[in-house]
Amino acid sequence: REFESEIRFYSGHDPLDVWDRYIKWTEQTFPQGGKESNLSAVLERAVKALNEQRRYYQDPRYLNLWLKFGDCCNEPLDLYSYLHSQEIGTTLALLYITWAEVLEARGNFKKADQIFQEGLQRKAEPLDKLQSHHRQFQMRVSRQTMLELEESSDETDTGLLGAAEPQRSSLADLKGRGKKKVRAPISRVGEALKATNQNRSFQTFTSQQLSNNPGFAVFDENSASGLEIPVLTPQPWAAPPVPRAKENELSAGPWNSGRVRSLKRPRSSANSGVEVPCPLPSFTPYVE
């Protein structure tokens, strides 16, 4: 309220000072921003209220208000173009540095370098700060270009290695080949493939030498006329196996659905002194 009343009844020669202090107080009071700070609305009011004051166009305080307002906008690049067209902050290095950083973040390195070059041609102040940021920008672009070249060369080398040396697929489904005689497939790559070819040529040479000997045949896993794998036929049991002896094993039988009858002792009359004898049970208990 104090700042609002000071802005309303201000009669001094530097109204920008009041807005600048008002913005700084808002940022310090509400460092997290949000709706409570109402910072974007205050910034919009400040730049509009001072828009007719051309003496502030090259003032760093006024440019700082515009750049903070640009952070609240959806498209800050449009705001920077507007500032450039209105000659607001065009002699200050902060405009070109902020503009180029946004373009660099979006990957438009060529346009960012053009913004830096324009600021250097205008000799925006402070010039040493602008030159320092431009050198750092060039180093980042050069580093990014080198990384992209290394990644592309690595991908090319990987492609060439993959074409020259095929990789064996692991955990793949094995599909048998052949209709009558199913054989498991053999997958070899690299040195194993070369060794297999050498063994195959040696086996061919050996089979030619021993073709006249009918006593045995050389086994070739890759030839179509290989030896048949013997098939195991099930043999019947001579007698069923004896089961294990189980503890507390009961023979099968019907469940007893009868109820246990309880023996009730007849009540004796309290008045009569004659004791009624208890009935004898209908079964004989077993005594060891």
Automatic annotation (TrEMBL):
UniProt xrefs under SMART domains: Mad3_BUB1_I (SM00777)
Family annotation (Gene3D superfamilies): 1.25.40.430
PROSITE patterns per the UniProt record, alphabetical: BUB1_N
One cellular component (GO) term of this entry: nucleus
Database matches in InterPro entries: Bub1/Mad3 (IPR015661), Mad3/Bub1_I (IPR013212), TPR-like_helical_dom_sf (IPR011990)
GO molecular function: protein kinase activity
Residue ranges of every copy of the BUB1 N-terminal domain listed in the record: 3-158
Source taxon at top rank: Eukaryota
The entry's keywords: Kinase, Transferase
UniProt cross-references to PANTHER family, sorted A to Z: MITOTIC CHECKPOINT SERINE/THREONINE-PROTEIN KINASE BUB1, MITOTIC CHECKPOINT SERINE_THREONINE-PROTEIN KINASE BUB1 BETA
Region feature (Disordered): 151-177, 242-288
SUPFAM superfamilies: TPR-like
Gene Ontology biological process terms, A to Z: meiotic sister chromatid cohesion, centromeric; mitotic spindle assembly checkpoint signaling
Name under which the protein is recorded: BUB1B kinase
